[in-house]
Write a structure and sequence with these properties.
heterodimer, A: mainly alpha, ABC transporter involved in vitamin B12 uptake, BtuC, two-stranded antiparallel sheet, 2 strands, B: mainly alpha, two-stranded antiparallel ribbon, 1% strand, ABC_transp_permease (chain B), transmembrane transporter activity (chain B)
């Protein structure tokens, strides 16, 4: 009951606030919400929703993994982009048959993301820079590096845009109805996360650290080691998402293409919304992806800017954070 | 390589960060972890441009920026104090809300996408002896000693620090912890409003989507690096401003922009390492 109320109250509150905003711009809120719904799940929109859900759900999972232990990884963007650029380099320059290239590229992306995030964990453990800050600060050089690479050494010579050449035919992840086959990889990662979280000692240690960090240390959990491990898995997942993005359509790295859609931040919100539980995170990510792709449909149907859906997402989280505090306090009192 | 204009452009770069970092330092002192500085700055930018555009006066724009950012900081204040929500969740969400909301508003209010600028839009103009700097730049420097005195030489600051360090003790001495925390968050919002106004109407006059580009986050780092002391925060912001200005200079001699863009973040990270090293050696705990 409380759990339902916990989600339902913020959702209704966000929808009401959105409706007020819509009325202020002179739009019928029901028409706009209807357009979001039909745009996200209608026959024309469901493909877009799924295509958008792949990176958002992937990043949400990546950020949920350390969040489960109460650790916030704010460097997802850097890990994502570094994974993408590493996969691109393998796809472009490593010789060999296509399938080998694809596998190596996915591995390279995962490893690059994992190593970079682990570096942030080492910064906390050895140098006392809080994870929140070390992950965030490391993100910017990675984005700059990728921007530099596709402007100069790996630039597509035939184009004026800051983008790499396309990957060769064989070294691509094929698409099914406009959705990358990378979706299966993302689903597999989420499934593995769900099993580890629910059934293994590692998952339990992580959760205990999240629930009661001091008790966890008292119980003998090596926090620095756990931090490095969780961050490596988190960054590896983010890197994999980047690799999938590059190996899928348009089969190249375009500067800003992974940053502008805010996959990372929307993913982080989804993970926060679900309290980092594996299936909850997936559901929240798909919900946010649907809101975003529905936003484009709403913009076409009603001229209301699609950013309205970004506002709804953030407002929803704010209400959720606030009311979760209220319910927490009520429970404590009772 | 190093001359007066380097310092002038460093000054321009550091002012919005300094305002936001002072806001963060105040909140930190009262025991409030504020990572919504980025969002407040961005709302300040938008408020400044909207105010200036509608009234034709840059200074009314500054007032609107301060009001808008202060009102915006109510989200963190109400959410974290009255409702006991997680400040990190609230901060991340309100930063994202600021991006969405200002992008939404730029399209509904100004009818353009991406950025808004107009020849009739009033900027802050120049003031004082240093060329190219607005009045707000000087104000940000004055705010440093003012806040230092307030925090360390005034009963109000003593109570505020008490609230941050021992909230129960402060409360039992009759200090209203809630009121102090609301006060610093709202005052922080006002400072971010000034920072946003400087960013949008200072050396340029425009609003662009997500134009704060991580400056609020750098301010969060500056609070740590400066140990939440106004002077420390100033030094941290100065370091960042110099790194950014030096980066521009290096672009002039042919270094790619992407390399120099990363410089301030790397410099900040290295500075954090060094300051922590020193502290670890110096202090037993």
């Amino acid at each position: 009951m409380t759990r339902v109320r916990l989600i339902a109250v913020p959702v209704v509150a966000a929808l009401v606030l959105g409706a007020i905003l819509l009325l202020a711009t002179g739009t019928d809120p029901l028409a706009a919400y209807g357009a979001i719904l039909s745009g996200a799940f209608g026959p024309d929109g469901i493909g877009d929703t799924l295509a958008y859900a792949v990176p958002v759900a992937g990043m949400a999972t990546a950020l949920a993994i350390p969040l489960r232990a109460g650790m916030v990884n704010l460097g997802g963007e850097g890990q994502l982009v570094l994974g993408a650029i590493s996969a691109l380099a393998v796809g472009l320059y490593v010789p060999g048959p296509g399938l080998v290239k694809v596998v190596l590229a996915l591995l390279a992306g995962t490893l690059a993301g994992a190593a970079y995030a682990a570096l942030a964990a080492v910064c906390e453990n050895r140098l006392g820079v809080p994870l929140l800050i070390s992950t965030l600060l490391l993100s910017y050089p990675a984005m700059s590096l990728a921007g530099y690479l596709v402007r100069f050494p790996v630039k597509d010579a035939g184009s004026s845009l800051p983008q790499s050449p396309q990957l060769p035919e064989g070294a691509r992840l094929p698409e099914l109805d406009g959705v990358t086959t990378g979706i299966f990889l993302v689903v597999a990662v989420i499934a593995v996360y769900a099993v580890i979280d629910a059934r293994t000692p590692a998952g339990f240690e992580t959760k205990v650290t999240g629930w009661a960090p001091r008790f966890a240390i008292y119980a003998g959990i090596d926090r620095p080691k756990l931090t490095v491990r969780l961050l490596a898995v988190s960054g590896g997942t983010a890197g994999l998402v980047g690799a999938i993005a590059v190996l899928g359509f348009p089969y190249r790295f375009i500067d800003g293409a992974l940053i502008t859609p805010q996959y990372t931040w929307i993913g982080l919100l989804a993970a926060l919304l679900a309290g980092a539980s594996p299936l909850g995170t997936l559901l929240a990510a798909v919900f946010f992806a649907a809101l975003t792709s529905g936003g484009f449909a709403m913009e076409r149907a009603t001229q209301v800017p699609r950013e309205l859906t970004a506002v709804l997402q953030a407002v929803l989280i704010i209400f959720l954070a606030a009311t979760s505090g209220v319910f927490k306090r009520k429970a404590r009192r009772a | 390589m190093i001359d007066a204009s380097l310092f002038s452009s460093a000054l321009t770069a550091l002012t919005p960060i300094l305002f936001a970092a002072l806001a963060g330092a105040l909140c930190q002192r009262a025991g409030v972890f504020n990572i919504s500085l980025e969002g407040s700055l961005l709302v300040g930018c938008f408020g400044a441009v909207a105010g200036s555009w509608y009234t034709g006066s840059a200074w009314i724009g500054v007032v609107v920026a301060v009001i808008a950012a202060t009102a915006y900081s109510l989200i963190l204040a109400i959410g974290s104090i009255t409702f006991d929500g997680d400040p990190i969740v609230l901060g991340v969400a309100s930063n994202l809300l600021a991006v969405g909301l200002t992008s939404f508003l730029i399209r509904t209010v100004f009818g353009t996408e991406g950025s808004f600028s107009d020849p009739t839009l009033r900027g802050l103009g120049q003031f004082g002896p240093i060329p190219g700097q607005s009045l707000l730049v000087y104000l940000s420097w004055l705010a440093v000693p003012a806040l230092a005195v307030l925090l360390y030489r005034h009963p109000w600051g003593l109570r505020l620090r008490g609230v941050g360090e021992r909230p129960e003790a402060a409360s039992s001495l009759g200090v209203d912890v809630t009121k102090y925390r609301y006060g610093v968050i709202l005052a922080g919002g006002a400072l971010c409003g000034l920072g946003g106004a400087q960013l949008a109407l200072g050396s340029v006059t425009l609003f662009a989507e997500n134009m704060t580009a991580g400056r609020g986050w750098i301010a969060v780092v500056a609070v740590m690096l400066g140990r939440a002391h106004p002077l420390g925060v100033l030094l941290a912001a100065l370091l960042f401003g110099l790194a950014e200005a030096f980066g521009f200079r290096l672009q002039g001699i042919g270094l790619p922009q992407q390399a120099t863009d990363a410089a301030p973040y790397v410099v900040t990270l290295v500075a954090l390492f060094l300051s922590n090293f020193k502290r670890k050696k110096g202090q037993p705990a």
